[in-house]
């Protein structure tokens, strides 16, 4: 029915390296994401110019910047640009890794102290060289702190893209004091293309925006002094503001929730808060006070000073969780101390230990001092006996009281009677499973943690594998598939899922609208991540968040107050807290401050005073936000954005439909044994579908171009036809349900020739491929590319492999015209890139020159004011001191004037050098190859 020539044409078409918009369609066709137009728009913004040093994506929270960045990473990966680095907060590393794997099938390696040092021991010179260190290419993921500590190793890799998540962490780089991490990363990654993600790129002043832009491109603005001189004024003139806004449009993209909502992309729900107070019993209070006093003792021998913060913080978290949890930890501590071994293994109940260690810079350290520890061990044994004697936990009873009330609230808001319960302790998780089981929920509970080795989870996993055997739902990664199995059981059968932080990373629970914080983290960003599991894109109902208040613990009450009132985490519209979260430098820093209060305060009065001070400091940070400046600089008119997004949605849908139809047609051409049914087909007992959502719904396999069967079909079709090939084909035309092709009807009964050529236009930064089709009939009629393409998509049979060609010169003329047209388009695109870069450089040079002029004028004014002041002084001593200061200003002004022309020459020389670089990066090389030549004949019925 079809020939290798047609399959080869489709295979080459499906895998062309084209401009960003067309190439992105391939990447979207391979992704398991319901892509929104603003996300495609943002990715195209990041990919639009090969000369760009990077961009800032500043979409408001809840709009999926992770998806936008992943789309850009997937596109780079498809282009075989695999040296990709993600720098993210420590707490988001696993979530990013999971997201890349689940949605885009992109491999990633999380680099941290343990595997970094392990790779070195195994002979890897630089573990950031992922392919050499770990055996296959993958995206490198690490935290800000780790990346800064490994500055030298980081700098030795020529990264093809570096993505910074929560990039507002870098915005204070312009300051001389502090910003050490930002400076280390800027130095290590100078010259690498960068993608910065931040919903809050600017909080206090314009200089923060300058800081972020300077990390991307040092030649976007002039230096700090010239930027201050031009734009950092008490009142910026409207003309200057408009100019700055226009400049930023080429490097910063920002879309708002209201704009996406107006376009119809996402509907946002609200979150509501419930609290359940409780009074701990006498034994619980005694245990808390004794363990807390032990942790406050700086003379403790068991905990070495270098790890004191980490160890005491984790023990406090476990202590606050449950007596059952601290009992297990105390037992492990005693065993480790008696064996003179590290305490690290004793803290494994807290799964976030590695994240905390990475964020605080604590690596593998021997926590044990060889001094006699028996007194401390005996004290810990006393604590252990007390913990073991506690039968009931007041907070556990509070959970049972609150559960039905919370279920009713969620149901009233339209949700299901489903709850996800978060705890920071694996042992508490097990204990809660038993308590809730005894309270009547036995067969309706799912556990989710970092390992899930329990029998119930293993049985759920085996049943899930059997149910989905052969479908695309099974990824092959046991941890990812275990999560998918447990989430599916929670969705379809269970009422309660009890999660640890590590277990819940990377999962979406938008079918559930009730979240219970059994243990409340001190880090506001962690709390937001938790709530984001249920309160996210796709949530159809308002969400209820339940927290517990310990009436006997002032510090616990103040932590809740801080998270609720200052960070507004538990009430309001989706993601309302992000604006405030972005105004703080780090959730880990707040967690450290809270921990310090617990450690040093001995009375309720001290606790109240310290929390008052912390709240006042945070309030100052939060109130410094400059809404008006940010809006006027980074945001566009809603009506313009909505119109653009509407257009993008239509364009993406049409392009994706066309691409999927051609991929399906290649399958039809290549697999005559398959049974086709509409938009899918069955082969060897398995259904395949190019629509990932339909594939998952029907337990079919996802047919995509970059992985699995789709990739095999494309590669095989290319390999089966060695270029240049030649043949004579008989095409069969018959009417279809889609109507007649009038240009083919005119050719019925005729014969002629057709050639296919691949044209490759390359620059050092970019490769673009074109398929050129030229054809004619034996009667001398020229066929346009559309007609040639329609011919190639008809059923056909091969008549001869050695036909005699008559029209080579005619076809060659057509090909030359097509090549010239493609070359003209490429040159026009390059001219546009060149103009953008030269305009940017002109503005940079102008900044530098204006900065010099303004500084000289400022000095002139200061000198004038100083002379006037000298005349008004009375004593000789005052006049002499003022004269010295005046002379210093005059010398500075004179030196600057002497250096003025020299500095202008330097600016011009740097501009010339950069222009030469641009020209080299735009130099086009042209290559073309004949894929096949055909003699054809068209027969059939009108």
UniProtKB/TrEMBL annotation:
Claim: Nucleotide-binding is one of the keywords in the record: yes
Database matches in Gene3D superfamilies: P-loop containing nucleotide triphosphate hydrolases, Tandem AAA-ATPase domain
Coiled coil regions, renumbered to chain: 604-662, 856-913
Pfam families: Helicase_C, SNF2-rel_dom
PROSITE patterns: HELICASE_ATP_BIND_1, HELICASE_CTER
InterPro entries (UniProt xref): DEXDc_RapA, Helicase_ATP-bd, Helicase_C-like, P-loop_NTPase, SNF2-like_sf, SNF2/RAD54-like_C, SNF2_N
GO MF entry, a single one: helicase activity
Domain Helicase ATP-binding: 46-219
Superkingdom of the organism of origin: Bacteria
Keywords for this protein: ATP-binding, Coiled coil, Helicase, Hydrolase, Nucleotide-binding
Domain Helicase C-terminal: 402-581
Descriptive protein name: DEAD/DEAH box helicase family protein
Organism of this sequence: Azotobacter chroococcum NCIMB 8003
Lineage: Bacteria, Pseudomonadati, Pseudomonadota, Gammaproteobacteria, Pseudomonadales
């Amino acid at each position: 029915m079809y020939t290798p020539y047609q399959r080869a044409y489709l295979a080459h078409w499906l895998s062309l390296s084209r401009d960003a918009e067309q190439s992105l369609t391939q990447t979207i066709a391979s992704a398991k994401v319901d892509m929104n137009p603003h996300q495609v728009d943002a990715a195209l913004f990041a990919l639009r110019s090969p000369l760009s040093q990077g961009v800032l994506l500043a979409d408001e929270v809840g709009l999926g910047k992770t998806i936008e960045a992943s789309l850009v990473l997937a596109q780079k990966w498809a282009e075989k640009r695999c040296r990709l680095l993600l720098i993210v907060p420590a707490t988001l590393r696993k979530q990013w890794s999971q997201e890349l794997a689940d949605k885009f099938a992109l491999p990633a390696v999380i680099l941290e102290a343990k595997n970094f040092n392990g790779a070195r021991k195994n002979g890897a010179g630089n573990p950031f060289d992922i392919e050499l260190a770990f055996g296959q290419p993958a995206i490198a993921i690490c935290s800000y702190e780790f990346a800064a500590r490994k500055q030298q190793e980081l700098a030795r890799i020529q990264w093809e893209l570096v993505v910074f998540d929560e990039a507002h962490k870098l915005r204070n780089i312009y300051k001389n004091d502090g910003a050490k991490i930002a400076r280390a990363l800027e130095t290590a990654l100078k010259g690498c293309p960068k993608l910065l993600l931040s919903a809050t790129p600017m909080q206090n002043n314009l200089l923060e925006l300058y800081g972020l832009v300077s990390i991307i491109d040092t030649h976007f603005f002039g230096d700090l002094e010239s930027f201050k001189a031009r734009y950092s004024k008490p009142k910026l003139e409207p003309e200057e503001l408009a100019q700055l806004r226009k400049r930023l449009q080429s490097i910063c993209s920002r879309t708002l929730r209201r704009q996406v909502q107006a376009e119809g992309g996402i509907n946002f729900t609200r979150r509501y808060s419930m609290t359940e107070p409780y009074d701990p019993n006498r034994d619980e209070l005694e245990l808390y006070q004794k363990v807390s006093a032990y942790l406050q003792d700086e003379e403790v021998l068991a905990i070495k000073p270098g790890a004191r913060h980490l160890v005491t913080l984790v023990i406090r978290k476990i202590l606050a969780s449950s007596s059952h949890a601290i009992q297990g930890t105390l037992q492990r501590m005693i065993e480790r101390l008696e064996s003179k071994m590290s305490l690290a293994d004793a803290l494994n109940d807290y799964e976030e230990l590695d994240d905390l260690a990475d964020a605080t810079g604590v690596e593998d350290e021997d926590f044990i001092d060889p001094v006699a520890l028996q007194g401390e061990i005996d004290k810990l044994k006393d604590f252990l006996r007390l913990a073991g004697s506690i039968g009931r936990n007041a907070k556990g009873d509070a959970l049972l009281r609150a559960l039905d009330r919370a279920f009713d609230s969620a149901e009233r808001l339209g949700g299901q009677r489903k709850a996800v319960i978060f705890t920071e302790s694996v042992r508490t998780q097990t204990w809660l499973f038993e308590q809730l089981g005894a309270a009547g929920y036995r067969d309706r509970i799912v556990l989710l943690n970092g390992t899930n080795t329990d029998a119930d989870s293993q049985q759920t996993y085996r049943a899930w594998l059997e149910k989905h055997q052969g479908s695309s739902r099974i990824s092959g990664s046991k941890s990812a598939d275990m999560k998918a199995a447990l989430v599916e059981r929670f969705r379809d059968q269970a009422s309660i899922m009890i999660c640890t932080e590590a277990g819940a990373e990377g999962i979406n629970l938008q079918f559930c609208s009730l979240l219970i914080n059994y243990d409340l983290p001190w880090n506001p960003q962690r709390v937001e991540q938790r709530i984001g599991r249920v309160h996210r894109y796709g949530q159809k109902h308002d969400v209820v968040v339940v927290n517990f208040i310990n009436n006997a613990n002032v510090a616990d009450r103040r932590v809740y107050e801080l998270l609720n009132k200052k960070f507004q985490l538990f009430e309001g519209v989706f993601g309302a807290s992000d604006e405030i979260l972005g105004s703080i430098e780090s959730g880990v820093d707040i967690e450290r401050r809270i921990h310090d209060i617990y450690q040093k305060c001995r009375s309720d009065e001290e606790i109240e005073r310290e929390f008052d001070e912390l709240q006042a400091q945070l309030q100052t940070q939060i109130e410094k936000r400059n809404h008006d400046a940010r809006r006027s600089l980074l945001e566009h008119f809603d009506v313009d954005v909505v119109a653009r997004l509407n257009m993008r949605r239509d364009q993406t849908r049409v392009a994706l439909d066309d691409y999927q139809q051609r991929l399906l047609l290649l399958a039809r051409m290549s697999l005559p044994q398959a049974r086709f049914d509409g938009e899918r087909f069955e082969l060897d007992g398995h259904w395949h579908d190019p629509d990932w959502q339909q594939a998952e719904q029907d337990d079919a396999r996802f047919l995509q171009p970059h992985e699995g069967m789709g990739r095999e079909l494309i590669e095989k079709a290319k390999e089966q036809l060695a270029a240049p090939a030649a043949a004579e084909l008989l095409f069969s035309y018959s009417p279809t349900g889609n109507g007649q092709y009038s240009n083919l009807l005119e050719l019925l009964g005729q014969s002629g020739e057709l050639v296919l050529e691949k044209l490759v236009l390359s620059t050092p930064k970019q490769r673009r491929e074109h398929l050129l089709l030229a054809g004619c009939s034996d009667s001398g009629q020229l066929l346009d590319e559309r007609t040639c393409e329609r011919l190639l998509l008809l059923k056909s049979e091969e008549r001869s492999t050695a036909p005699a060609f008559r029209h080579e010169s005619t076809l060659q003329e057509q090909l030359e015209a097509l090549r010239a047209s493609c070359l003209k388009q490429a040159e026009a695109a390059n001219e546009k890139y060149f103009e953008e870069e030269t305009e940017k450089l002109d503005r940079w040079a102008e900044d530098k020159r204006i900065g010099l002029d303004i500084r000289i004028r400022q000095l002139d004014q200061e000198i004038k004011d100083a002379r006037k002041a000298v005349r008004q002084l009375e004593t000789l001593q005052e006049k002499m001191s003022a004269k010295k200061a005046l002379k210093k200003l005059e010398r500075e002004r004179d030196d600057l004037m002497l250096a003025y022309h020299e500095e202008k020459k330097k600016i011009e020389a740097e501009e010339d050098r950069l222009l030469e670089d641009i020209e080299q990066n735009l130099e086009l090389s042209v290559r073309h190859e004949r894929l096949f030549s055909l003699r054809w004949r068209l027969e059939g019925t009108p």
